[in-house]
Amino acid sequence: MHELSTAVVGASGYAGLELTRYLARHPRLRPVALYSDRWSGETAGARLPLGGAAAALRYLPLGEAAQAEAEVAFLATPAEVSLALAPQLLARGLRVVDLSGAFRLADPGLYPGWYGFTHAAPELLAEARYGLPELGRAALPGARLVANPGCYATAIALALAPLLRSGLVLAEGVAVAAMSGVTGAGRKASEDYSFCEVDEDLRAYRLGRHQHVPEIEQTVARFAGRCGPISFTPHLVPIRRGILASCTLRLAPGAEPAALARAYDVYAGEPFLRVLPADKVAVKDVARTNRVHLGVAVDARAGVAVAVSAIDNLVKGAAGQAVQALNAVMGWDEALGLDLLGG
Amino acid sequence: MHELSTAVVGASGYAGLELTRYLARHPRLRPVALYSDRWSGETAGARLPLGGAAAALRYLPLGEAAQAEAEVAFLATPAEVSLALAPQLLARGLRVVDLSGAFRLADPGLYPGWYGFTHAAPELLAEARYGLPELGRAALPGARLVANPGCYATAIALALAPLLRSGLVLAEGVAVAAMSGVTGAGRKASEDYSFCEVDEDLRAYRLGRHQHVPEIEQTVARFAGRCGPISFTPHLVPIRRGILASCTLRLAPGAEPAALARAYDVYAGEPFLRVLPADKVAVKDVARTNRVHLGVAVDARAGVAVAVSAIDNLVKGAAGQAVQALNAVMGWDEALGLDLLGG
Amino acid sequence: MHELSTAVVGASGYAGLELTRYLARHPRLRPVALYSDRWSGETAGARLPLGGAAAALRYLPLGEAAQAEAEVAFLATPAEVSLALAPQLLARGLRVVDLSGAFRLADPGLYPGWYGFTHAAPELLAEARYGLPELGRAALPGARLVANPGCYATAIALALAPLLRSGLVLAEGVAVAAMSGVTGAGRKASEDYSFCEVDEDLRAYRLGRHQHVPEIEQTVARFAGRCGPISFTPHLVPIRRGILASCTLRLAPGAEPAALARAYDVYAGEPFLRVLPADKVAVKDVARTNRVHLGVAVDARAGVAVAVSAIDNLVKGAAGQAVQALNAVMGWDEALGLDLLGG
Amino acid sequence: MHELSTAVVGASGYAGLELTRYLARHPRLRPVALYSDRWSGETAGARLPLGGAAAALRYLPLGEAAQAEAEVAFLATPAEVSLALAPQLLARGLRVVDLSGAFRLADPGLYPGWYGFTHAAPELLAEARYGLPELGRAALPGARLVANPGCYATAIALALAPLLRSGLVLAEGVAVAAMSGVTGAGRKASEDYSFCEVDEDLRAYRLGRHQHVPEIEQTVARFAGRCGPISFTPHLVPIRRGILASCTLRLAPGAEPAALARAYDVYAGEPFLRVLPADKVAVKDVARTNRVHLGVAVDARAGVAVAVSAIDNLVKGAAGQAVQALNAVMGWDEALGLDLLGG
């Protein structure tokens, strides 16, 4: 069976590492080039517990990534880097799965405010397909450019979209608090993310200004037909990987709790989604898997529903989802190569 | 100078231990009896890095606590135990500072639903003074029975009350997400709180059902004159001590961000409160102190204000606050004996 | 291809869980029965991120394990339980891989002192094969009863045995300090292993009395032909999984550092062993893999060599090693089903 | 009562911060100048939970430290910086307590090999007094220059010295393994000490080459009259603060276990030392105190004694010890200002 050749650009970041791991075991994908300035010249086997041909791959300088010889390129790079690389790779005939935010927002006008740059390739925004199969897999088969969803956006949009579509909650007044493990901040030498500063600490950051906000609103609006402006407060917590999102929504007049719980029935049959009581949703049960656990509790007294979802930010929030989306692009079983079993 | 003799009931729990530490250094308090079945017969010096007379105290069986010979008893016991002990101790002429929820709610009708028992001493609810000086110190001087606030309630009420009083936010639709360290669950042999289950995990619990909800609403309503039903989602996170609360409030029409920030001016001069930008509020800066850090950010786009507060659940959320309240009861400087310097 | 049917007894412990994960993905093994009183009646899919038939297995009461219908039984049970079960299962024709210490020591006379019981089946000690392929795979093909090595014993014996065989270090005066993650203590409701007690703490335990001591000495003596009494100090550290062992050995007169480093050449070609500079050996690089990283540094000034090794106590120290040993018993590739890729 | 004015140079490092905390509460010391380039211009109260005059102090640039106007300067700076500053400060009449290794080794010939520089002020090595009161307080009264011991050196020398002096163990073949929290590496922006790299990991470093080795040997030899070359393997473990050292010593022929336990009787009356069974020595019991817990277990079978000691690396291993030493220099109660009570 033909194996699709793949390149990973930004292969030494936490998402790039995870991606390399998945590609090395995927039955129909084959990593052929890994780009990383940090580890340039080293073998992948020296950095990851890989076997076989993948172990022998040598990291190449990032500057050579535009010339990657592969059928698919995964970009695990900052948005500005992806924005520069993707057009070149597409022009050379590669498919591109971009893990940054460079191609996630359909409206180029949102980039200056949320990402701090003017989008240089707005025509690609029109072409890019958003890689969240559970809320829109129809768009994926055959796509040339996949915008892989953000980690928070994945956890939150999956929790919110069915509830808003149900009509049982108001589209306005959605308040989301989420907590992320430190790999979400990427690999970097920074005092702020040093063990001594993060361990035993909790804090909120980028209140109301996180760049996943417009992505969540766009995704929910597409699926549910409506979405008010969302309030989002992300928090940094001392775990390595994982996101837990708690989303408070105002009940529509007359909404019945039992009906609300059924809103997640739209996920029946999804291989990676599992609906649980909201207080049984836990990061440790999804860690190192492509799974999403989610649940909703109704607080009739306060007039709200609280939806809780958990993912591994490096898997369903990055590398696993990228593989799942490519599986969908190629028309394969979406779960192919994603059976790592947690732990 | 006369030192007030004090007893600690429930001295081997995390709050009881912290209290013992504080009492041992307080210039006007002197621990004379420590009750704990767990460590009965052992000396306090064998369990805590104490010096002096406190080190020589031997833990006594809990069953003897009703006969405590002291001027003040601190009850760091479950609500049911406090409910049984407090009347006996009061009858014998002791002042009582109760760290449980037994005497926090003015309305006895709230106990069956939130605490699971019918209140046996409703007359004491009328007498009890709520020990949160920053939102009502006038009630404390001379009090016989102090109901020490809950840890979440402290962090959340202090963040919410001035905002609601300002009139700049709506009284309805307040959504609170808070995270607590594991000492908040108390000392116990439980698989759920074992290192292997808690480390690297995040989860929500008691969604909409936490017993601090009516306490928060009562406290905010007293101070602000109004408070709608609050939605509260607590989370367990892998740190030993500390609470961070993120509170999302809907802006009143026409509310100005600058005005909102000034709502916390009511705390000017408070020795333990410090107002910061919301994204500078962090657990590690208040750990092992009686301090509260808090801040508010306005998200005009989403029409909300997000208030963030941080405390150490064992200090301002328990033992430190109890000492502060007793200082107020006695007419002393509220900060007396509370100058432990974090770390 | 025929799949061997397997049962896991003690399937809800940390090693049992890990084993279930591995069996579910092994190409030639098939879990057909899982025994656990704790989760009796629940499905494996409710507890683990499994797919396929394994997910539908229901945990059975431990009391039914003696009647297990399978070709191989893995016992992830306390030594006393294994000691009672193994003879019954062997009599019914099953192969047994026992993860406890019940069958590890050839000399029954060692059991009362190190394990606290008199061995009830000394004839099985003679039959049992020690399942550490790297130091004795010849004994494994066709074995009916495999004694799976202890976690510390694996890490330490692999580090020591080649050095002692080389003759470059003395057989006397070996001092081992090792650190283990908390899963090494098993799953239990215990205040001692609660998050609040373990987090941010370090301590030594069972100094000189750990039951892996005679196992290490027996294993090293078999491979190296000599082994003095080893001093072993285990430590509990706040990580979930992983062991790091630091072994100090006295250099033989005239031993050359370069020669010492070559002692590990005996491991050339081992799929799971990797020799590194001693200060590059780290738990995180072997976590969730069946790998062993090890290295040796010579301190000529102090006249010692220090060997450092790292394993995942639940994989190479338990479940992975059990699968590897069974692979060897069956004559299969030892790495079969063990390609989980860490993280 | 006259308060001695003190300056802290390197006040934003972890040891410098801890020192500031202690000085701010010391009844006879008064911080008057804090030097830190990182926080230059900020107030101490913005960084630490201080009250009073200390809170208003503004951090000054490190370059101005040589002109410090104070009676005592604490140098919490790298050895090279201390080496340059101390002579200038001494010349201006200040006493100096140096927390680096710049003045710890009596033999200047040891500096190139262990510290990587040739000592520029060997005459000060002769003058410097080693600030470990429990093993040599007689040298301290009136000292102008105190070399504050290293953190590992403190934990290890205190454990070893009485045993070697007892004659019950051999002076040769001492093997030490110790584990340190991450604050021991100092405050820095480094990928190696990032949360993601350190959390859930264990590793050894600087095997046999740690610069505390000659310091330990010098200290033990002074106290015990003999000390062979020590083998020392330090480890990095995921805790914020604390050191646990496990020291394996070979029993002298005929040594009796009971006699060995009595070796620590030399510490009777020491305010900060507590002798316990070796498996009861734990970092959490000494964290945030100036205490040392230590114990020794005899393993007669292996012919060794294992001594275990625990300290807080920032307190007894740095700031607390510096205050204790200055107390001794001034002829005050050594425990003055050191009654912080852990937690």
From TrEMBL, chains A, B, C, D:
Subcellular location: Cytoplasm
Coiled-coil stretches noted in the UniProt entry, renumbered to this chain: none
Active site: 151
Catalyzed reactions: N-acetyl-L-glutamate 5-semialdehyde + phosphate + NADP(+) = N-acetyl-L-glutamyl 5-phosphate + NADPH + H(+)
Annotated InterPro entries: AGPR, AGPR_AS, AGPR_dimerisation_dom, AGPR_type-1, NAD(P)-bd_dom_sf, Semialdehyde_DH_NAD-bd
UniProt pathway: Amino-acid biosynthesis; L-arginine biosynthesis; N(2)-acetyl-L-ornithine from L-glutamate: step 3/4
Boundaries of every Semialdehyde dehydrogenase NAD-binding domain copy: 5-143
GO biological process, one term: L-arginine biosynthetic process
GO molecular function annotation: N-acetyl-gamma-glutamyl-phosphate reductase activity; NAD binding; NADP+ binding
GO cellular-component term (any): cytoplasm
Enzyme Commission number(s): 1.2.1.38
Keyword tags: Amino-acid biosynthesis, Arginine biosynthesis, Cytoplasm, NADP, Oxidoreductase
Keyword NADP found: yes
PANTHER family named among the record's database cross-references: N-ACETYL-GAMMA-GLUTAMYL-PHOSPHATE REDUCTASE, CHLOROPLASTIC-RELATED, N-ACETYL-GAMMA-GLUTAMYL-PHOSPHATE REDUCTASE, CHLOROPLASTIC-RELATED-RELATED
Family the entry assigns: Belongs to the NAGSA dehydrogenase family. Type 1 subfamily.
Record function comment: Catalyzes the NADPH-dependent reduction of N-acetyl-5-glutamyl phosphate to yield N-acetyl-L-glutamate 5-semialdehyde.
Name the UniProt record assigns to this protein: N-acetyl-gamma-glutamyl-phosphate reductase
